[in-house]
What does this fold into?
Amino acid sequence: MTGNTVIDALLVTANASAPEWEPQLARALKRPGAQGAWSPCTGGESWGVPMERVAQAIRRVSEELPEVTFLFPIPSQSGGARDLPVRPRRREAGGVLRAPSVSPLRHLMKAVDVVITDSGGIQEEAPTLGKPVLVMRDTTERPEGVEAGTARLVGTDCSRIADQLLLLLTDRSAYEQMANAVNPYGDGRAAERIANHLEHRFGLRVEAPGGFADAGS
It folds into this structure.
């Protein structure tokens, strides 16, 4: 009926002042030679063997597309950088950058092209910022995103993750199809619609307000 208020909050805060670390991170990502295709990989729920497979996929893609930089935030429960199964490479362009699990993540998502995640919330938020989402799960409690085309289930199979990453990073048409898909979770007006529905329910508004589906979604 209304969309998700999480999306309202995301759109408001995404335009807020950037955190102190963002300029430094942007300089690292935009060093000379990089082509501007970056992927953060959050995986707090899949740490261990599944994350090792994701790391193998990232390593493969990084070797095939050396101009691409992968940003790999380290979840706090991972035990620190020494446990990260991806080794950074020192190059003028491309490779893997390790980073603390930065917050707020919305600024990180704005800086990248593709998101690899097992997070449920990010499956809703990243499409709002126009970022395709590869979901490291075989099933999701948010099937609407998969049906809408904003997210794609890739599980934790190394080959499948690598193939889908390569597709999105090399095929502009495939990328834009996901990036431009309508986010089924909201358009930033959920709170407004909720207030309108409450006013109508208590007789403060004559006409019945429209819902999120009526907005063309």
User: Anything to note?
Assistant: Confidence is low (pLDDT under 50) at residues 31-36, 78-93. The chain has nine helices and six strands. The first helix runs from residue 5 to 14.
